[in-house]
Amino acid sequence: MAELEPRVIPIGPFHPLQEEAEYFKLTVEGEKVIHLDIQLGYMHRGHGKICEGKTYDQIPFVVERICGICSTSHPFACVQAIEDAANIEIPPRAAYIRSIVGELERIHSHLLWLGLAGHFLGYNTVWMWAWKYREPVLEMCEVITGNRNHYAMFKPGGVRRDIEEGMIPPLLQVLDKLDKKLWMLTKAVLDDPVLHARLEGVGILTKEKAIEYSTEGPTGRASGVAIDVRKDDPHAAYDWIEWEEIVLTEGDVFAKAKVRLLECLESTKIIRQCLEKLKGLPEGDIDAKMTDPPDDEGVGRYEAPRGEVFHYVKGNGSMYPERYKIRAPSYMNIKSNEVAVLGGSVADAAITLAAVDPCYCCTERIAAFDTKGKLLHTWDDLVRLSREKTAKMGGGS
Amino acid sequence: MTDIPQNLEKDGAYTGDTGFSPKRDSDVEFKKVEKQCLEFYPKGELTKLRKRRWYWEIETKDIINVADFCFNKLGCRFSIASGTDTPRGFTILYHFSLDRIGLIINIRVTLPHDNPEVDSLTSLGRGFEWIEREMLELLGIKFKGLDDTRHLLLPEDSPPDYHPLRRPHG
Amino acid sequence: MNLSAGWIIFYLLVFPGFLFTTVVGLVYVWVDRKVTARVQFRVGPPFLQPFFDFFKLLGKDTFVPEGAPRSIFFGAPILGLASVSILSTVLLVSNFFPSQAFGGDLIVVLYLFAFIPIILIMGASASSNPISALGGSREMTLYLAYELPLLFALATIIVKSGGQLKIGDLLNWQWANRPFLYSVSGAFAFVSAFLCIQAKMGFVPFDIAEAETEIMGGIVIEHSGPVLGVLKLTKAMLYFVVSIFLTIFFWGGFRMPVKGEWWHIFGWLKPIAILVLMVLIKNTNPRLRVDQALRFFWSIVLALSVIGFILAAVARSAQTPILWL
Hints:
Chain A is mainly α. Helix content of chain A is 47%, strand content 11%. Chain A has one domain (47-331): Cytochrome-c3 Hydrogenase, chain B.
């Protein structure tokens, strides 16, 4: 066969692989990927800048809208950053409730990823089943917070709603049922021979590379980098209860799936313990009142389902922060695809790219645009621009 | 069925068997790290604002040495960097996370308004690239040694002197 | 075989050719979608949904990519549709009116079966898109993978029936003795042929050439409007054709093993049962990589069909042919 000519296979900006707009430019020889260029910017909304115009009470609501899946991770990190800056401790009741909401979100996010991963592999049955079992989790969220998503539970100093004594037994029941289904799903997925064939040894991220790219969350933990903010930098109720940090060493896509599935089971453990302990706690305050706006700078971080969410806030004594910086885990994880997809085939690249559980909305959020309300382009302009851009991207052969 | 890993060793600090993190009170470790830091770079001003949040003010020209010390010697993970436009100049906070003991070391450098320029850390690891590109386009801070200077978040056709996070001063 | 031209046209266009196959094929698509939905805890589409989908596509615009040769771009789907119509006519005429079949029609069927992927690859390479080129190359690899086991599987039943090359004769042999499926060698041949058909239909785990989430539909990515509609219709007709293909060659056609004409109505359930089996396999597997599929067909499936072939030869070479082997 003649020498294969390198060709560009675009994944994105709009592609069934991704629910959000992102552009991965795969350079391939035949089916083998030899280079990857990642281009961001399609989902950029400027949340950091928006936050600088909001009061500390409003910011959790704004950052909650960064992402629909990890809609409690950002507020979690955000309120911790503000509390760090203002130097306040939260009451234990609030700490437990925060952990419960956070872990519920982890389960539903991991199940969502599992479903999508199945879909990416053409295994739509796993997709539907995982999402079906995700339903009770969302219902629990609704019972606890009043919403299936975008819970608006957190405020600087505590939480907004209490979990009352009477709610706990039914929640525990749902949890037991959920546990069984999660075990069933975990076993079904981990014992499927075709999935093994398809995922094992695919898209390996070595430990060295994982450290070099500073990956975190399940992406890092599957490569043997034991980073879990819940363990490392204890906050909320995470160091008052017993749970394991799941770390594997293979670094391939299968390990990433395994880490996530086992983490779901750990999460149910955490929720159960939190609920039990909550039962033992006396009724009390769920909110340490924040009286003065912070004057210092603070860093808050939380182990989101995808890794460490990092929020930095700089207060100046006024009601508004001077600088607000948000960094979502995918920002560090997506970059590591540069090495993970190399040498694999296009078929593997698709699932490898998805294996970090990328969340592009989270990834890009820092600055604001100022278009001053002027109509920049007419419809015809836009059509022309898009054609030019497509030609530039090398869409034709 | 799959086996759940038991009691993972993690750099000697934590074995994960109890679920209770010994890190929360390992004052010895914190003292050791502080001593290491001060020995390596005594010129810097180390503020321990909270127990696990240290702020370390250093000179701009030494950033690559100090970052190398944190990233490679201490074994920190690079979390992110935040650039801010303040009246004194641009400040960049490099957030390094020492996961062993749950410490965040924030390294602060301050750059002048008229020619903000700092060494790029991409030589330490590829993970530094995106945030430097981001600061380049949003704040207009130049990074010496950064090869890839394309736009990351802004559209590729936005003007090169458009830096949305810059503020008017004075 | 003395058919008037009028009858031939009727056979080809109305029954059992184009029109009949279209309608039944779309019904089969509905069966696929409904079964899939039930497996996945969903409700599934209404009965007429596949028809609506097709008519909707007819009303849409067709985009022709820049630099695509129009003759191939439009011609390939039409050729595909035509060959599937002929295929179903030949198969069903042999089944319903064995006396009107012609000698060597098995060869024609095999030829037409091979023709369809080639047409798809032609259409893909005419779309001047790197992704459809990738899909085309995957389709080609897959075709090379499953063609040989399929031929061996058919050779098995030909040997078993004593060298019959007419579909009608193969059916008669099955009615006189027993369907090939109910013998050891026939079962081997059926399993390998079944897997080959799964790949030919582009069902998971072999939907490699279309792979929506990897290469966005691959070979059909540039097709739209009526052209896509024709491709979809061809696919729908193939649903029916491959099911009757397996029924006729391995399961004794539409006849039931009981006395009485009316019982044969239930023979129509046979291809549906095969379809449902295919759909279930499709829904309990993830997609393979193309190299894995190639290895699978050239090792396991080929071995199965070769074993079947050897067993059939052994059974035939005995003094009185052993029927159960």
